[in-house]
Amino acid sequence: MDLLVTLALGQVLSLLICALSLTSKYLANDFHANTPVFQSFLNYILLFLVYTTTLAVKQGEGNLLAILMQRWWKYMILGVIDIEANYLVLRAYQYTTLSSVQLLDCFVIPVVLLLSWFFLLVRYKTVHFVGTGLCLLGIGCMVGADILLGGQQGFGEQKLFGNLLVLGGAMLYGISNVCEEFIVKNLSRVEFLGMLGLFGSFFSGIQLAIMEHKELLRVSWNWQIGLLYVGFSAFMFGLYSFMPVVMKRTSATSVNLSLLTADLYSLFCGLFLFHYKFSGLYLLSFFIIILGLVFYSSSSTYVVQDPRVYKQFRNKDNQTPYEPPPLCPRVLEPTVIYTTLSPEQEDEFPVKVA
Fold it and tell me: What is the rounded CA–CA span in Å between residue 177 and residue 111?
């Protein structure tokens, strides 16, 4: 049952990604509204109004002022990374195809795997690598179908530039996703979204004033463009709000593997909206990706017991020592045990997390 719920939650995120891709493609191609910073700015403003204000009225340690005093510069760096990740990927829609953006965005998966291994100390089993390999094989089937059908019409030499933008954005997304997983599992979802809304709206507003103020004046505003902007903002706000919920239940790697099906949804929409050609390999790739997700989700990962990773972000000098709960097979919630690195602790069992 948990496996089905996990798969279903991942598909909700995939549908939101598909909706974001379609609205971005329409804005860039049909209406020539090349405003990636403005699109992200609208989302950060919504995050600020909902989550940053929630932190502002909270009392105690989770208050906005208390968080800023303890770790403001870390959230500032995270906010800039997230802004530029969105900017690079949204900018790429002006230079390359929808399918290319979706396929190359899969580069985020190896980035997340490596960062989770080295910084979150997550350790994987053979079944996880098999599941990841199957998911990437499914993506390979889509690439093969695109090649056999002659590919989509490119944008000349600009397509290479667009593909490089996607790869850069995927790398930054990987960093942001790993940070998000750590924060929502060890701090709180509202703190992550509230601080992202604060610094995201501030720095994206500066970037908007510098880079896109003239582009906004060139937009031929009408009800269709307005509706697309509203739709994009709603979809992105929903994605940002819902992804931490799924990530706390699973992991950054699992979430990004689930998002691979967004490529299929985009291609299926393209059959009707952009008159893409159909190939049976698209269906085959969909089933291979789902099979890979089943393999990956069938077993839990575990975290090496190293307290330094879990204390460095909190940055609290007067924090009372954490008393680890007894290891009990009936404990269902994932926990992390803070232990010393002394030799007598080497026989401790690793703690499993979902």
Answer: 10
